[in-house]
Amino acid sequence: MLVTIGMHYQQENDMNELNKLLAIWQAHEEKMRYSFSFVPSENALSPLARCAFLADFQSRYFFDDVRLWGNWAFHGGRIVGDIQTDILVPILRRLTRAEHVNVKPISGLSCMTLVLASLCRPGDRILCVPAEMGGHASTVHVAEAIGLFASMMPAATAFELDLDRLVEQMCTLHPKLIYIDQANVLFPIDVMAITRLMREYAPEARLHYDISHINGLVLGGVLPNPLDLGAASFGGSTHKTLPGPHKGYVATPDAALGQLIEDHAMHLVSHHHTSDVVALAVTMLEFEQCGGREYARQIVKNARTFAGVLHDAGLRVQGADRGFTDTHQVWVDAANIGSANALSDRLYEAGILVNAFGGLPGVPRPALRLGLNEVTRYGLMEKDVALLAEAFVAVAREDNLGGVAQRVRRLREQFATPRYCFESFEEAVTQVQRLIKGNVES
């Protein structure tokens, strides 16, 4: 009897937990359906790319077995693996203009770890971007964890290096690698100025450019290809301005360097998530064939428009003297309108999700780090983001928050699905078949 009662209670408890899980899931979907995200490290997958996470191959391994070992060890990946070898890698080679592309990293931080381990040996010195210029908070930690010594390049301003002091560092520290890692970036660092100095003062060093935040802008031609700036390799995460899954890649034209990266990836990453690979392949196919370059240009147009409306309304938008931004990011110092955290909470209630962030270059207090990448992905143009900027200002002034939320919701209903992607599965299938046929014939 007690056993029966106990089993009934456990079943009831299990159902309560399931119901709670589903309720939370539903609440999230409902909130996001009527909200816009301005978090610069987030974006929206296309409908077809999302489907990759519902397929059988989500559970399968693909190691490119035959190339590595001469036979199949994991047969579940025999068919789907062709998406990586015949579609994803060739597209990335075209867009990066690098012959050697590794798609094993599962995130931006995974890329960082792989690059640092591949290009350096324990005891080597690296130079990276200081926090006061937007450097990534984890770079030093990762470097030191694998036995490297990390030093910060000297900043002259929030956006410019002190090149004279950088020469001194090159001559005294003898770095093996210069790692460009801006996570907070309005105006990308002058990489060509660094590589020019490297040729004279650090000829043995390599430069790797982590373009995680600006990946879509680089591959879309808005910002220069790092190889043209003198980088030996580049890459990063694929879910920020590039609207793909949480994954990463590393690209280089150097065969020896490409082999080093592949050798280390075998052990530092192991399996690299087949559904992520397929979703990224869909994303890159759509980026090439559905207006990726137009999308990239529109991101920057939208960011400048949004920043300009806030600035004209009296908000403290950073970089105003330089046109606000050359990327997707917009920074707002909330000092004259209350705390950044309080403002972000009010914006959330109005359907505007933002990134309250401490440590932005040139801002001595928590501020708002905004990104126009996801709203652009949903098809908003300058006139539309201007309306959202006006809603942002109204929330900052605490002006009729309920009315603002309704305005945001109505606008979101007009932009309910991602753009710059295949409009139908039939179109997608046709495009994939055409690409595979082209690769086979070539």
Protein model, in words:
The protein is α/β, with parallel strands linked by helices. The chain contains 17 helices and 13 strands. Strands 2-8-7-6-5-3-4 form a 7-stranded mixed beta sheet, with helices on both faces. It is globular, with a radius of gyration of 23 Å. α4 packs across α11, α5 crosses α10 and α7 packs parallel to α8. It folds into 2 domains: 242 residues, Type I PLP-dependent aspartate aminotransferase-like (Major domain) (Aspartate Aminotransferase, domain 2, 3-Layer(aba) Sandwich); 123 residues, Aspartate Aminotransferase, domain 1 (Alpha-Beta Complex).
Task: Assign a percent range to the helix content.
Answer: 40-55%
Strand order of the largest sheet: 2-8-7-6-5-3-4
Beta percentage is 5-15%
Structural class: alpha/beta
Element pattern in H and E: HEHHHEHEHEHEHEHEEHHHEEHEEEHHHH
Question: How many structural domains in the coordinates?
Answer: 2
| CATH topology (level 3) name of the largest domain | Aspartate Aminotransferase, domain 2
